[in-house]
Amino acid sequence: MKLELSVSLCNGVIDASPRELIPEPTAMEMICEFHKLKPPKFEGGTDPMVYEEWLRRMKNLFEIMDCPERFKVHLTVYQFEKEAAF
Predict the structure, then answer these.
(1) Cα 73 to the chain's mean position, in Å?
(2) Domain ranges of the chain
(3) What is the pTM of this model?
(4) Which among 10, 15, 50, 58 is most buried, taking Cβ atoms within 10 Å?
């Protein structure tokens, strides 16, 4: 098996070159993509079920977007309104 793999590499059958790196999206690209998905606003309040539903929806959006961790807090805070904005 090792010999076959070596021969394949030498013959160019298997590409041994590293994959091209995909550049991380810019902040503006993430903001635009986020708003296209129409994220829910969060107004605060005392009902934990409202918060849990909002959080679930936000997590789903971030998963769909494949959002890098460094953007999540900024995008989330932007959705706070009324009581939650303080």
Answers:
(1) 12
(2) 23-85
(3) 0.69
(4) 58
